[in-house]
Design goal:
about 80 residues, alpha+beta, 3-stranded antiparallel β-sheet, two-stranded antiparallel sheet, 1 helix, globular
């Protein structure tokens, strides 16, 4: 299964799982761009693939995380306590 995060204003708003078959190109090779287009066609918005195992893009994206154009980053809280 492949995971994709919906990005809005640099923030992860949703994370979904899609079947690996939907991210295959015409040659049967997994392509993030194919999966991102699949998600955008279904739900609209901008989608970035994320790795459940944290193998790429810094970490597995969670709702509220930031997308810095290269990696998903957990925001640092300004709260002290």
């Amino acid at each position: 299964m492949a995971h994709f995060a919906r990005i809005e204003n640099g923030i992860v708003r949703q994370v979904i799982v899609v079947n690996n078959e939907v991210i295959l190109d015409d040659d049967g090779i997994e392509q993030e761009s194919v999966g991102a287009k699949f998600c955008a066609d279904l739900f609209g918005g901008k989608w970035i693939q994320t790795s459940y195992n944290g193998n790429f893009k810094g970490k597995f994206a969670g709702v509220g995380d930031k997308w810095n154009g290269k990696n998903f980053v957990t925001p640092v809280s300004n709260e002290q306590g």
